[in-house]
Amino acid sequence: MSDFPAIHTSQNDHRLYRYIRLSNQLRVLLVEDVQTNQAAASMAVQVGHFDDPVDRPGMAHFLEHMLFLGTEKFPDSGEYHAFINQHGGNNNAWTGTEQTNFFYTINADVFEESLDRFSQFFIAPKFDIELVDRERHAIESEYSLKLKDDIRRVYQVQKETTNQAHPFSKFSVGNLATLAGPQSELREELLSFYQQQYCANIMTLCLVSPASLDQSEVWAKTYFEGIVNRGVSKHYPSELLITDAERLKQISIIPLKQQKRISVNFALPGIDQFYKRKPLTFISHLLGNESPGSLLSYLKEQGLANNLSAGGGINGFNFKDYSVSIQLTDQGFNTIDEVVKCIFEYIQLIKMHGLEDWRYQERANLLNTAFRFQEQIKALDLASHLSINMHHYDIEDVVYGDYRMDNLDVAEAQSLLELMHPLNMRLQVVAQDLDTDKQAAWYHTPYKVSDIELSRLAYWQQTEIRQALKLPQANPFIVPDPQSRNEASQNPVPVVVAEGEGYRIWHRKDDEFNVPKGHLYLSLDSQKASMSPRHATLTRLYVELLLDYLTESTYQAEVAGLNYNIYPHQGGITLHLTGFTGNQETLLALIIHKGRERQFTQERFNMIRKQILRSWNNVAQAKPISQLFTSLTVTLQKRSFEPVRMAEELETITLDELHNHVSEFYEKIYLEGLVYGDWLVSEAQALGKKLQHLLSLVTKPSHESSRELVNLQGVGTLLREKAIQHQDSAIIVYYQSSEATTDKMALFSLLNHTMSSTFFHELRTKQQLGYMVGTGYLPLNRHPGLIFYIQSPSTGPRVLLEAIDEFIADFSYAVMQITNEQWESTKQGLISQIMEHDSNLKTRGQRYWVSLGNRDYQFDQRENVAAKVGTLTRADLIKFMMQQMRSKHCDRLVLFSCGEQHSQQQLGSKNMILDLRTFKQAAEKFNF
Fold first, then answer.
1. Close Cβ partners of 155 (under 8 Å, ≥ 6 residues apart)
2. What is the distance between the alpha carbons of residues 237 and 167, in angstroms, rounded to a whole number?
3. Comparing C-alpha atoms, which of 676, 675, 658 is closest to residue 503?
4. pLDDT value of residue 910
5. What gap in Å lies between CA 125 and CA 135, rounded to an integer?
6. Is 0.70 surpassed by the pTM of this model?
7. Using CA atoms, how far apart are residues 577 and 566, in angstroms rounded to an integer?
8. pLDDT tens digits, residue range 141-154?
9. Contact 521/674 with Cβ under 8 angstroms?
10. Per-residue pLDDT tens over the stretch 671-712
11. Residue 58 has what DSSP assignment?
């Protein structure tokens, strides 16, 4: 019997858990999951950038990188990554403020072998001196990647405007400047940092696999007891994050993207102590409410704000910087003091009337219900999450801690609310038209710190609450005691339960996950949805206005665990409802009713149009590789358009034109739906009849909209350049299958799986071409595709393309050299990935819906692809590469952007797409 308390788990959790402490004081959580074919491990080390030496910012992050690059027992720097990839897994790591997390997933049958490799990171890493310089260049690439990222740029200002004696103020990422010096010296510092900081007693390990708990315990002891315990104890400075010197300041920041946003921040103590009662979760639930009478509802009605979030902000060992963040309209930006006044009035309302037990219990009951019917997550996500939770919660709460809300301690909640006071605030203003007098280090963000005037503070301290502000009513959407129905499914996959001219509804009753939840997908196809850039723009505007219009009516439903999303696609729009089935039909009826009203006001139309314009124009500030990914689908899909092109159309669209578009959109509709989860056949059939009746009132039946894809066969190497203002260059090389068959899906999937780790190792780790380097299997409109992508701070597009071509040319030889055993293992790894068990209702529902989108009406495409992968030979791969990929004149699309420093490395102009519209009109197309 264990000496440790039992771990509190959900009634819906089939997994078994065991907590142990090894002889070296390493804390380990073992999880037995007989339903998974994947295993996962995660190590959370209580070392982060707070621990960086003052003169070596980024050291913890640098160490995280170096641990992947070979150990005494497994010295090859690429071996770990290749082993994980070959056996159907993936791996990653991150460095935070106080923790570093290493995690991976892999086929369960080789879990023990992988643990031998993984444990050596923490026992005997090599720290090869010849890799030190290479990896600090990788850190530089990672740093460079975020130079134009507003989140990182604002974060750096936050660091510079807090107490500089607090470890939060340190630069966390590192770059060539902070990691400069002779390689030998840096290696010695790295080794010293590792030996002083990485220690068994401040590590937590989580192992998840189908193996028994006893077997996992043997593995944990065998492979991880070799980690040295130096008895390290963590002692961060007792300095406050915000002292009187930093309080009562306005921090004005200029972003790159267009936005107008304020954050009112309050310095609170560390929050781990509150986890059993979660008073801040409760306060945020009231402050961030969006139903009628709420703070956001009032600000929207006054035309001052579009969005609000409460409860965010940084937190750590002795601090929580609690944030109320609001996205402002132009009018709101011009009356910031009034917006801030409203925040303080609502806080006062909560103080006076909000701390009622029924309100707290409503929120606590929702969390308890979510825990009772907790849906399983993938082994990798579970391992990573639990290894971190072990640093924050009592061991019995390592699974339950996120959901635990014991009782309302009014005095405790009041003490926190008292700190949400004008005299304990900082105001952050983010907008493009601000006066600044400083520039942040590392990210060059313009900003200014100024004292908040006493007159403003006095105004905000006035406590009279305007009558329009109301606390939320009792939530009518909460199902008091939801229960799943135990009826077995009559079919192994979805079947058609309602069908007629212009509509078809599929259904399957879940009988595996046993949660009282459902997933309802409804896709409305209309020929008018996106037949031109203007139509596509109008459809997107309609969706955004509808979502905005629905917010207040549906907010309580979302709080009660009934969620929905509406999104446009090439053929029309899709509505996706999720959550507890007791009230799903009520929510659907509400959405349909509101959707048919379409009573959009001119004021909200103007605001939403401005929001979308800002969003589309801000795309130009995204990472180059992200912009190229957007351009890839735009270049190849007939009904996809560049955001900047749609922004041009949006400038001249009127409310009347939108209303006309909506009417035309619904003139002829094709409806395809999927009902999956705790829905009975009779319920799905009844829903189908209701939907058919509704359609007959507003529309005539139609056929599915076509989804046309540019056919690249016979065109040679097509080039398209995107003009992007960024210091990095970027490139995507895309190869397209000529057929949308199972055979080609298998071939392209296996080609990507076989190449990916080698490509990453060769071009990122060895050649140091950039931080974002990879390959991907990318099907578009059912047609398989293969991409190679790089974003590089050091190299221009011509050299990047040459490097990709050289890799492809040499890879055939690499495939020839692997053993039969390695080849079969590689295939088995991919098959295991393809056939990975659906971990929850959501994952399976998504798979069913994607199958319908692919016209895989037998729902067996993945089984067929996996079977075909099993038959492929190395000769099949080599033959395809030689015929389709080796020639510089092969059929492919190359998208690229040239960095500001790489103008001498341009690609030639031959076969360049200069006018996208003309190209797409003239190109041969696959019709789907």
1. none
2. 8
3. 675
4. 82
5. 15
6. yes
7. 9
8. 999 989 999 999 99
9. yes
10. 999 999 999 999 999 999 888 888 887 777 788 878 899 999
11. T
